[in-house]
Amino acid sequence: PASVAKLEFVLFFDCPEDVMTGRILERAKTSGRNDDNLETIRKRFKTFRDTTMPIVDMFEKKGMVKTIVADKSVDDVYTEV
């Protein structure tokens, strides 16, 4: 049987797509991943907007989203979390 957990909050890392694109393309230089390319990145973002953001929005309306501004350095984001 499935169990249900009480959700306390949703942690949402908010980062502009242009920043994420730059990070992924930089990672592509050393990752060896063939899916780190602009076409695939755009598809990922569209999928995220279409399937994940409605869920985030639903929890936002319930006051359950804690947003982390994630376009800063790794250390700054870690500190905010």
What this model shows, in words?
The chain is α+β, with helices and mostly antiparallel strands and 81 residues long. The chain contains 3 helices and 2 strands. The protein has helices at residues 17-31, 38-61, 74-80; strands at residues 10-14, 65-69. It has a two-stranded parallel sheet. The longest helix has 24 residues, at 38-61. It is globular. The mean pLDDT is 92.
Reconstruct the topology from this structure.
Blueprint: E1 10-14, H1 17-31, H2 38-61, E2 65-69, H3 74-80
Parallel strand pairs: 1-2
Helix pairs in contact: 1-2
What's this entry about, in short?
The protein is of the alpha+beta class and 81 residues long.
List keywords for this structure.
81 residues, alpha+beta, two-stranded parallel ribbon, 3 helices, 12% strand, globular
Measured between the Cα atoms of the first and last residue, the distance is: 33 Å
Q: Structural class, judged by helices and strands?
A: alpha+beta
| Mean pLDDT across all amino acids | 92
Helicity, as a percent range: 55-70%
What is the CA-based Rg, rounded?
Answer: 15 Å
Shape descriptor reads globular
Order of helices and strands: EHHEH
Task: Write out the strand line-up for the largest beta sheet, numbering strands in chain order.
Answer: 1-2
Q: In percent, how much strand structure appears in the residues?
A: 5-15%
